[in-house]
Amino acid sequence: MKVCVVGSGGREHALATVLRRHHEVVVTPGNPGIPGSVDTPATAIDADLHVIGPEAPLVAGLADELRAAGRLVFGPGADGARLEGSKAWMKQVLVDAGVPTARHGTFTEAAPAFAFLDTLDGLYVVKTDGLAAGKGVLVTTDLAEAREAVTEYLSGEAFGDAGRTLVLEEGLTGPELSILAVCDGARAVPLAPAQDFKRVGDGDAGPNTGGMGAYSPVPVAGDDVVSMVMDDAVAPTLAALRSMGIDYRGVLYAGLMLTPAGPKMLEYNVRFGDPETQVVLPRLTSDLGQLLAAAAAGALDAPPTFDDGAAVTVVCAADGYPRDVRTGDPIEGIAAAEAVEGVSVFCAGVGAGPDGGLVTAGGRVLAVTGQGTDLASARERAYNAVGHISWPGMHHRNDIASAAVADTTDGGNRR
Ligand code: AMP
Q1: If exposure means fewest CB atoms within 10 Å of the residue's CB, which of 134, 183, 227, 249 is most exposed?
Q2: Is residue 411 pLDDT above 70, yes or no?
């Protein structure tokens, strides 16, 4: 089968790498670090299957356009992608489907928003309704900061139109979990669970990012938790979408918090997570192309299978990320990193340098994935490989999967 992957980040590099185990793959537009990258637009590529990576083209209706042209497409249409395009609508779908989620309100005016903040219990969450590249969420214990964010979001100053409608939520606490479900419109099968790290600094310090690392499997997410999420959240959501006439064929990415009162849905994304994809897909032992083509055709049958090992990915970010990013710094050491056993380097924000090498071209530059028999060995390999990579101002977290490794080595009593 010839597969066309749409997108240009580390997620698309991982998708292409794992699809290529069984199929021919092109990536559009890709980047200079992803083999098989082409400039041709997706609509002009003749492929047996199109797989759309990022949310923006999904929200903009690329899947609809390709389907209208007779293509087999993995990725929801604009109607389903609205789950990610509008957090206010997503929250309404959750409530209608009876899926447990944080108490919330949707606002376009400051006065009622401030009044809602006053009803919350000391942990305030302010979100843009629209897409904000993973950065439109503030979680704070400081009421003044939350009020300031409300003002900035609503004025359009912080996130343009994406923030002129905002969602306020009660803050939840507990470990987070991502479950990526592959859906064929009616049925869904889960991929291996993963956990990602949103904050830029060690110990969850600093601002939110698009994701600084991830690991899989997740010790706190046994089969019972996965089944509960599939039965109590994903299945009713798919059914609610169907009842609205939405034929959802793609990834439904459930971002959950395992609160003391049980799992609660923080959000849905409508595509593979980045960097979760860089740990989940390398562990796949079945044929990814076959799975995605079956879902795209509305005919999911056999669930995917995964190895018994583990994967840890560490994102190496450019100077200044997630604020003012400096680009153009020459990247050293990718080959040495990939020479470490069990390691793959996935290229995200990279560009071609003047001397033919790669330079930084975005905030999250590389995702360095280590695989091993368990989380400890996967983590060791990932960090060993990261040690070979450098550019001026490069930074990464040092604690990706460290708590999970401690959990699995001390009987699972810690978080
Ligand atoms: P979202 O884009 O909605 O997933 O939010 C990004 C991140 O913000 C999540 O991964 C959580 O770490 C955090 N977050 C979102 N909603 C809440 C909430 N209600 N309570 C606590 N943290 C939250």
Answers
A1: 227
A2: no
pLDDT digits 0-9 by tens, 141-190: 999 999 999 998 988 887 878 888 999 999 999 888 889 999 999 999 99
Helix (H) / strand (E) containing 28: strand 24-29
Residue 124 pLDDT greater than 50, yes or no: yes
Contact status, residue 226 vs residue 194, Cβ threshold 8 Å: no
Structure tokens at 284: 């796949």
pLDDT value at residue 155: 86
Which of 186, 297, 295 minimizes the C-alpha distance to 246? Answer: 186
125, 173, 176: residue to mutate for ligand 1 pocket, most atoms within 8 A of CB: 125
Reply yes or no on whether the pLDDT at 415 is more than 80: no
> What CA dihedral angle connects 132, 135, 138 and 144, to 10 degrees?
-80
With 0-12 / 13-18 / 19 or more C-beta atoms within 10 angstroms meaning exposed / middle / buried, residue 408 is middle
Dihedral sign (CA 54, 60, 61, 66): negative
* Sign of the Cα pseudo-torsion (202, 207, 213, 218, in order): positive
Cβ partners under 8 Å of residue 44, min gap 6: none
User: Stretch 120-130: mean pLDDT, rounded?
Assistant: 91
Pairing mode of beta strands 310-317, 213-216: antiparallel
In the chain, the percentage of residues whose pLDDT exceeds 90 is 85
User: CB atoms < 10 A from the CB of 356, how many?
Assistant: 7
Query: Looking at residues 358-366, what average pLDDT do you find?
Result: 98
d(CA 145, CA 143): 5
Average pLDDT, the chain: 94
Query: Count of H helices and E strands in the chain?
Result: 14, 21
Q: Locate the ligand 1 atom nearest the alpha carbon of residue 170 and give its number.
A: 19
| Ligand 1 centroid, distance to 1 Cα (angstroms) | 38
* Banded model confidence at residue 414, pLDDT cuts 50, 70, 90: very low
How many whole angstroms from 257 Cα to the centroid of ligand 1?
A: 8
CA of 97 to the centre of ligand 1 (A): 20
**Which amino acid is it at 251?**
V
How would residue 12 be classed by pLDDT, with cut points 50, 70 and 90?
very high
Distance, CA 391 to ligand 1 centroid (Å)?
Answer: 31
Tell me which residues have their CB closer than 6 angstroms to ligand 1.
102, 125, 127, 137, 139, 169, 171-172, 176, 198, 208, 255, 266-267
